[in-house]
Amino acid sequence: MPTKLEGLTLVSPNLEYKNGFLSFYRDFVEHDPANADYYSAANRDFIGYVQGLLDESQSMNLKPNYVPCNHFWLIDSSGIVYGAIRVRHNLDSMFLQNEGGHIGYDIRPSSRKRGFGTYMLKLGLFEARNLGIDQVMITADEDNNASRKVIENNGGQFEKNVKCLEEDQVVARYWISL
Q1: Do residues 123 and 10 touch, judged by C-beta distance below 8 A?
Q2: pLDDT, tens digit, 9 for 90 and up, residues 34-68
Q3: Is residue 27 in a domain?
Q4: What is the Cβ-side half-sphere exposure of residue 111, based on CA atoms within 13 angstroms?
Q5: Cα gap 69→73, rounded to integer Å
Q6: Total number of domains constituting the chain
């Protein structure tokens, strides 16, 4: 683990980081299998996975109800991937307006509770500002106190709890002014 979070950087998905990203995925398989499937396509076809992420940033080949989205990986100088963050360009779907928000992120399970999430979201907010977003909506599961703390540490102002549209779950909705 790096001694200073400032030594970490956000990078766009790139074939150069295949080993680091697949290690990130395997960490989910081992320590958080319920959420590993989100990254399983990278394990099957890494080249296609990366191209799909890059396409999303250019509004190309979007799945139904998806919006343009820039993906970034939080890495250290050796290429270890500690996190993945998604910055959506707009909230032009019911899901995003209700519970998805502009930003979603994950920290590799074995590296949680060490400040990576707070630092990665800070960097992600700069990326959102670069896209011209001035008010970011971001959510966390109502009972995910660690994620809520990450959001609050980055200036998140709690709006309200909302029921998810298709799941029996509640998320806490926050706004961050950039």
Answers
A1: yes
A2: 999 999 999 999 999 999 999 999 999 999 889 99
A3: yes
A4: 27
A5: 13
A6: 1
Between the two ends of the chain, the Cα-to-Cα distance in Å is 30
In terms of Cβ atoms closer than 10 Å to its own Cβ (0-12, 13-18, 19+), residue 76 is middle
Strand partners, 26: none
Tokens of 59: 């509004």
Residue 17 DSSP label:
G
Residue partners of 135: CB distance under 8 A and separation at least 6: 175, 176, 177, 178
- pTM (2 decimals)? 0.94
SS3 67: coil
CATH number assigned to the domain comprising residue 57: 3.40.630.30
CB contact at 8 A, 137 and 115: no
Sign, Cα dihedral of 51, 77, 136, 104? positive
Residue 4's pLDDT band (cuts 50, 70, 90): low
User: 41: which DSSP letter?
Assistant: H
Domain holding 13, by residue range, is 5-133
